[in-house]
Amino acid sequence: MQRILVAHDGSKASDKALRKALEIALSMNSSLTVLAVVPELYLTELSDADRQRITEVLKRETEDNMERIRKSLSGKPIEIKFLVREGDPAEKILETAHKMKVDLIVTGSHGKHGTKKFLIGSVSAKVVEYSKCPVLVVK
Ligand SMILES: Nc1ncnc2c1ncn2[C@@H]1O[C@H](COP(=O)(O)OP(=O)(O)O)[C@@H](O)[C@H]1O
Ligand SMILES: [Mg+2]
């Protein structure tokens, strides 16, 4: 196991996923990539100006969150990368995993805005369904 990708959306569940991914990466001396996707807004009733403003807020939130993670991981004795992308979260996770040829994708079972009604959230479900490599959904 050389490369591990962990998807982080700022939620407690993805913090848990990050801890597990780090534990595996450290024990196997793998590189770790932390990916956060700024979700694209599809709400058609939004004006372009509102859409832009909300996207800016989401971007800043995501960058702040990455900075917090970067600090918490500083000094770890493995290679760690931090990526912020924009678009459909599941698609960006799958695309990044494919491009980087990762051996494992780690996600949380739930995220920030979802409901606990479903066994796992829609992003992790889509990643499990379409990924070509193993996926670990951390509960
Ligand atoms: N925007 C995102 N960027 C990176 N990872 C994400 C993003 N959204 C969700 N994930 C990953 O998917 C996991 C499950 O989230 P999700 O499927 O969105 O559940 P929910 O429906 O509860 O929000 C998260 O813990 C995280 O690992
Ligand atoms: Mg979500």
From TrEMBL:
Highest taxon in the source lineage: Bacteria
Taxonomic lineage: Bacteria, Pseudomonadati, Nitrospirota, Thermodesulfovibrionia, Thermodesulfovibrionales
Family, per entry: Belongs to the universal stress protein A family.
Keywords noted in UniProt: Cytoplasm
InterPro entries documented for this protein: Rossmann-like_a/b/a_fold (IPR014729), Universal_stress_UspA (IPR006015), UspA (IPR006016)
Location(s), subcellular: Cytoplasm
SUPFAM superfamilies listed in its UniProt record: Adenine nucleotide alpha hydrolases-like (SSF52402)
Key word Cytoplasm present: yes
Positions of the UspA domain: 1-139
A GO term from the CC aspect: cytoplasm
Stretch forming the signal peptide: none
The organism of origin for this protein: Thermodesulfovibrio yellowstonii
Name of this chain's protein: Universal stress protein
One family name in Pfam for this protein: Usp
